Please model this.
Amino acid sequence: MRSETFKTEQKRKLRISLITTALLACAVILVSCGNVDDSKDVEKFDASVTTAPTYAVTTAQKSESTPEETSAQTSAETSVSDETTTENTEKNTDKSLSSAVSQPKDNKTDSNTSKTGQTTNRSTTTTTPHTDPTTTGKDTTSASEDVHEPAPVLPRIDSREFLLQQLKEDRLRTAAKQIMDGVQAGQASILIDGGILKTSEIDDLMPFISMLEAESYVTPLSYHYMYSGNYVTGLKIENYSKAHDKYLSEKSAVDAAVKKIVADANAKCTDQYEKVLYFHDHIVKNCVYDLNTGVDGASAYGCLIGGRAVCEGYAKAMMLLCNEAGIQCTLVIGEIERDNSKIGHMWNLINIDGAWTHVDVTWDDVVVNDENLCCYSYMGLTDKEIVADHIIKPLGIMNTYTAMSSAMNYHIKKGLYIKSEKEIAAVMEKAVENAVTSGSQMVTLKCADGQTYLKLCEIIRNEIYDYTAKAAEKTGGKAVKSVNFFGQDGLNTAVIILRY
Model:
């Protein structure tokens, strides 16, 4: 038997249901707010807030009016694996490859669980995307009517090639290309050159193949591989996640959508940062976070065409849009921790004007009364900042980029960054004034340190209506009737939601 090409060793079978890409939303924020009467002499209302772990829990006196619910939804999804080992002739794998990390099977939503134990049900109502996401946080009292020249159009970046370049060795790139070509062709048997892919690397490479197929989620749901010595020599695919013709059709639809969105951004945006922000807002405004989307939810097709996705679909859509615009963007595989369980998650690292920065579109998707609002807490974070509530866990076969600069942080770019307690009043006054002037519902502020952040939260609880009333009087904008507020203490960020 030892002289045979394919040696007998062990058989491993991993059994997973197809659609368990996410058993639990990794952070669900429930915020209650009260309605305030139009009359000027009503008692002021400060939002009572219940937030997920790592977020600041703030409580203030409620209004006597009827409360409404506001929820901020974020994501966590991955495949689930459970393995057993027996002796047989080939190594057999049957698994969902929607993500590269494993999620414990018991992370199910409990209807009696407070804070993170509740799943946000999001509306399917289609909302209109921001035609100009650059207005959020800008000084609208300045010369906002000036006409700006669009940013230069950059050569597109092939997302597959860019991901392949992150593999640590050329032999891995060769193996990945051979598997990718076979998967794209819908082949039942895929040959791999001998001596380039170790058996110890196959469990990392197959999830990587899923990353390459960002447009439409086509991946081997079950396969077994043959090997000679310590090297894989071929794959036999038992079944794919979807038919080959469907994959081709969906990929074509995504390619067309990506080109259109990028063309719009090229015409409207003045620099790389504004393009990334445009893509960020477009995804939030046009995609509903949905755990019940099947394999489509883990693809850009689910996000950009179907309008329903999980974190993997959000991240893949963002990657394709940025790279099409010539802005380097890759996928980050990691986890978040909730209730002592680690749950898989995916987001993006983007190179904007030479500075790598973390962007998590899924966690910036906030739902207020069934309306998708753009939060910017996870727009432009460093490695140090993102690990406040994310765990970076790259595949062992990949090189990673580092995000050290804060230059692309949304709050710094938009003048919403508070360096000390002395700056709180001026920055907050301007931010609220800009929101009221434009009718924006969202105000986000970031502090340089925890002490300043706690002071900011105190002022928001006690004085927010003074700020909104002054802004409305000064600008002639609509009066603010009620306010939601939640703090994110890991990021020193406060999120204020205004109702007019």
Summary: Confidence is low (pLDDT under 50) at residues 1-145.
